[in-house]
Amino acid sequence: MPQPPEIAARAFILQDLSSGQTLAARQADTPVEPASLTKLMTAYLVFQALQSGKLQLTQDLPVSERAWRTGMTGASRTFIKVNTRVNVDDLIKGMIAQSGNDATVALAEGVGGTVEGFVDMMNRQAQAFGLKSTSFKNPEGLTAPGHTSTARELSIIAARLITDFPNSLPYYSMKEFTYNGIKQNNRNLLLWRDPTVDGLKTGYTDAAGYCLIATAKRPVPGVGGGSRRLLSVVVGTASPEARANESQKLLNWGYGAFDVVKLFDAGQAVTTAPVWKGESNTVKLGRSQPLVVVVPRGQAGSVKTVVNRTDPLLAPLTKGQQVGTLKITVAGQPWQDVPLQALDAVPSAGWFGRAWDALRLAIQ
């Protein structure tokens, strides 16, 4: 694995979202205070509520005294007024572009009923993501005992937000937002410096230092989708300038130090496997997305693959069900394991077919 540049941060991680690979990390599993990076989980639940119809962009939400007072704590606020109503779209812009604590709490109360109820939702979602070191105590990220995460787990939250709700990215690429006559710039300096950067979130507290989760999408001709998305997390830098510089350094290295190899197209069969007790005797294994891998620059020709199946495959099989693994090596060294899915459903056979295959399996 190529060595990343020296990054002046307490912890960092660089993820290739196109291939699902971690390209570099340091202290990525050390507990840190997430500061306003917390708002990524808040945003995930807000966009989830929009998707389900529980919330509407044109809907007006009340501004409670609690939301207003939270906005008075620290430097980040949207300047919404207590006992007024603000539409959800403006609150989302305030939470994301301005990192407004007041807008964030108003959204949390709108989705969860109470801040406490919303925090419970945040922690349940963290568990659903498989996060072990993340614990939320509030939706906005102000310092609180036990309010912690890690660089790696924050990258998982950010990746799920981008993947599950790509409609959130236009909000994160907003360079400024004006509300109540007050214009504020997005604190993500990379939005001005790198046209391929389209998000994601800054954070700062005294304990956390200056933090930034950044994502960029750059063209890669001939590879699935024609582009490659990277996600960087840096926490605990010394200044707003430093978090931008270190993130840019990490992203540029990630694009420059690796080659991208497309192994299979979306829906292309990697192999065909036998199926027992099904209406079909075989099933094609592959991925619903293009199967790409990033390798150190100049190593594309040394990529080899081996399929491991979970034999015997017994019907019924659902489309998309994991039924094997593609083991990828580079220059003879283990590199990445990619789950393989059934590309088609295979229903169970009738009773005679099931009985016949049971007999054949017993003989084997």
Summarize the structure.
It is built from ten helices and 17 strands. With 364 residues, it is of the alpha+beta class.
Can you walk through the features of this model?
There is one protein chain. This protein is α+β, with helices and mostly antiparallel strands and 364 residues long. Helix content is 30%, strand content 30%. The chain contains ten helices and 17 strands. The strands form five sheets. A six-stranded mixed β-sheet has the order 14-16-17-12-11-15. Strands 2-1-9-8-7 form a five-stranded antiparallel β-sheet, sandwiched between helices. A hairpin with a 7-residue loop joins strand 8 and strand 9. Helix 1 packs across helix 4, helix 3 packs across helix 4 and helix 4 packs across helix 5. The protein is globular and about 75 Å long. It starts with 10 loop residues before the first strand and ends with a helix. The mean pLDDT is 94.
